[in-house]
Design goal:
Blueprint lengths: L2 H13 L2 H8 L3 H15 L4 E4 L2 E4 L1 H28 L4 E7 L4 H15 L3 E7 L2 H9 L5 E6 L6 E15 L20 E5 L4 H12 L5 E6 L2 H9 L5 E4 L10 E3 L5 E10 L6 H12 L11 H14 L5
Helix pairs in contact: 1-2, 1-3, 1-4, 2-3, 5-10
Length: 317
């Protein structure tokens, strides 16, 4: 069954006659009558009782009216939704972010994006790299923000910024007075690490391996905050992304010579339909000034902003 005959049928039912329905549709009354008769032949039922100049829906017509209104309403909603997807500044996006980046680097850009494009709805998902890559591959995410490189033949990536890794030591540590240190100076220290599966853990291990620095691993956690509090208490040392140190005074943070850095970028699945709104977010992130993001913001303020932003952007964990 085609949609146009349903529209004709609905017009006749609503206007109570062929003449007024034909005027509303902008077609001739004979043409409309022929279309209704064609529909009745196709369905093999009578839809209207023709009582002189008046019409009355039959039981078949009453039943079709219920379905016709629902079908045409759903078609109209679908067409509206498809048109919205074509729009550059409206639509929905599901974005995944790794835990060591979301609260420290992504709060301000996501907030700014939402303010500039209020018709775009972003749903945030915080998860480790392996989960995000699999969700991208399955089409459950439009974009993921994570540490590079990602070696997967179904995933394409683009770098956004590079972030230094800093040594985190207690204030009374023998290295605390230094302005910068060589990574091997942490050799034999008690090293506090994130658990297996966190990309930052791999980056720390790689940096230490390249510097030929041996260390004693004494603690693993899923949270940087736990690690930093233990460092402050003198329980050990760690390597921390620079943006996670902004506003903190409970530890001493030292740059390395030469620099130890990690690369952060966005990833997408190959072949995933690229909607205009996703391209808009990609460009926005590419144009963002990552060098000053979060600078000068107190730790408490940053986390309050993170909490409110995640709630507003429909974050899930």
């Amino acid at each position: 069954m085609e949609l146009q005959p349903l529209r004709y049928f609905l017009a006749v039912a609503r206007h109570g006659g062929f003449v007024r329905a034909a005027d509303h549709l902008g077609i001739s009354q004979p043409t409309l009558s022929q279309q209704i008769q064609k529909l009745e032949r196709e369905l093999d039922v009578m839809l209207f009782d023709r009582l002189g100049r008046s019409l009355k829906l039959t039981a078949y017509g009453e039943k079709l009216l219920e379905s016709a209104e629902r079908i045409l309403r759903e078609v109209e909603e679908a067409q509206t939704a498809l048109e919205a997807l074509k729009s550059e500044d409206s639509g929905e996006l599901k974005v995944g972010v790794i835990p060591t980046v979301l609260p420290y680097s992504m709060v301000k850009p996501f907030t700014a994006f939402e303010q500039r494009y209020p018709k775009v709805r972003i749903t945030l998902v915080e998860a480790m790299t392996e989960v995000l890559v699999e969700n991208l591959r399955r089409g459950e995410l439009d974009l993921a923000i994570l540490a590079l490189p990602i070696r997967h033949n179904e995933i394409v990536c683009s770098e956004l910024f590079r972030e230094p890794l800093l040594a985190a030591v207690p204030h009374d540590h023998e290295l605390a007075g230094q302005t910068r240190i060589l990574l091997p100076r942490l050799e034999s220290e008690k090293m506090l690490l994130l658990r297996e599966g966190h990309c930052l853990r791999n980056e720390v291990l790689t940096a230490c391996s390249r510097a030929k620095a041996q260390f004693q691993q004494v603690f693993e956690s899923d949270h940087l905050e736990s690690i930093l509090r233990l460092v402050a208490a003198g329980y050990g040392v760690s390597l921390i992304p620079q943006k996670a140190t902004l506003g903190r005074t409970d530890c001493r943070f030292l740059p390395f010579e030469p620099h130890a850095v990690r690369r952060i970028g966005y990833a997408m699945a190959k072949g995933h339909q690229s909607l205009p709104v996703r391209k808009l977010l990609q460009k926005f992130l590419k144009d963002w000034d990552w060098s000053v993001d979060g600078g000068g913001m107190e730790r408490e303020t940053r986390f309050e902003l993170a909490t409110s932003t995640l709630a507003r952007l429909h974050s899930t964990s």
